[in-house]
Amino acid sequence: MMSKDEPDRMSLRRLNLNMLYTLDAILNTSSLTEAAQLTHVSQPAISVALKKLKGQLNDDLIIYLNGKRVLTPLAQGLRARVRKLLIEVDETLNFQVTFDPQTSRKTFRLAASESLATMLLGRVVPKMLSEARDISVVVSTLNRTTHADLFETGVDLIISPEALVDHKFPSTELMKDRLSCMVWDEHPSIKSTISMEQYLDARHAAVSETSNFNVVPQEIFSKMRVSATTGRYGTLAELIIGTDLVATGSSWVLQYYASRFPVKVLKLPFATMETPIYVQWPSHLTNDPAHMWLMRYLNDFAEPHRIAHATFMKK
């Protein structure tokens, strides 16, 4: 087994761009078959490429321990560095002085909490795709990954609550959110408003991976009865349809569900704090024309909803 921890510098310089993409695929997939599919080559070709990489880097890169595929220390160290390098290469080769949504080709990669990602997929992305036919959009969830890690993997924009903002990166406020509750349109006892007594007597639906109830006052939360839990925010509306359940969550997202399902959104019977929602991006994109178009698009989308949200909260 090769044991050198550091590859020869001249060997590194002999790696061409195609080999770097191959190395990235091998280091970030679970098998050579998957790496071959990702790079659009045959499995024998990816095996030959791996053999060349092993020789040039003087390292096995992949070993098997008790039948389990494991990256060597060198491979683990190269993984993030190679990915970051390729992102910079892609950005350099795809740099545009101007961006025309009608003709430019671009993939936007966005990340948000599962609830906000649901709203983006439902409202923002379809309109973007209809107006810019040659762009593509990838929306992923945060999954407790740091902003720095997301940006290193190619994410262009992160939408998150103020509490998750990473001050090392540029940011701007997109909107303000607040908790509301949602019930089935034909709820047997809750009509246009909900009283504190009704809220505390109700059976509640919750999303296991969200922390919405963490901002409900403790004296209220301790008296709530959660009767149904779902693992995804996207299934919350369907969970309460046909039941007497009450769901508490993002006012913005619940209002989105109310536009699509037979549910209604009500103000909570207790005071709640507003939560600013921020957009963040890597510093090098600040003056990028495509990024500036995307930011204008998001702000144009958010403005009428900010007004609608403010009107709802005054009712």
TrEMBL record:
The keyword DNA-binding is annotated on this UniProt entry: yes
Q: Which PROSITE patterns match?
A: HTH_LYSR (PS50931)
What Gene3D superfamilies does this protein map onto? Answer: Periplasmic binding protein-like II, Winged helix-like DNA-binding domain superfamily/Winged helix DNA-binding domain
A GO MF annotation of the entry reads: DNA-binding transcription factor activity
Q: Which UniProt keywords apply?
A: DNA-binding, Transcription, Transcription regulation
InterPro entries tied to this protein: LysR-type_TF (IPR050389), LysR_HTH_N (IPR000847), LysR_subst-bd (IPR005119), WH-like_DNA-bd_sf (IPR036388), WH_DNA-bd_sf (IPR036390), YidZ_PBP2 (IPR037402)
Q: What is this protein called?
A: Nodulation protein D 2
